[in-house]
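Morning run. Coffee first, then this:
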Amino acid sequence: RVRFRSKQWYQRRVRGIFDRTNGADNSVSSPVGLLPKEGTINTSDLGSVDMKELFRLDKGEWVAECDAIEKYFAEQIPRDTPARVSEQLRELRTRVEKDL
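And here it is:
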């Protein structure tokens, strides 16, 4: 899986987030949240980037991520996890299992 860690990559994402908060139609809904619409991230100086692969959602990976978060909450902050956070995790798991 391709990962970007450059300063420019984060600047692109932050720009997209700010644009979205200012009303830009630059995202699409997914079971795990908003993802950038195709063509809304400037990749002109990045060479060949497979954006579909970069933002591909793998059900197995997301189920494992939900498992890991749930385990962390249970082991590290069992009494201090806010009910709404636990509820959001359950909702995320439901969306991932149903829609991915």
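The chain has a mean pLDDT of 89. Good start to the day.
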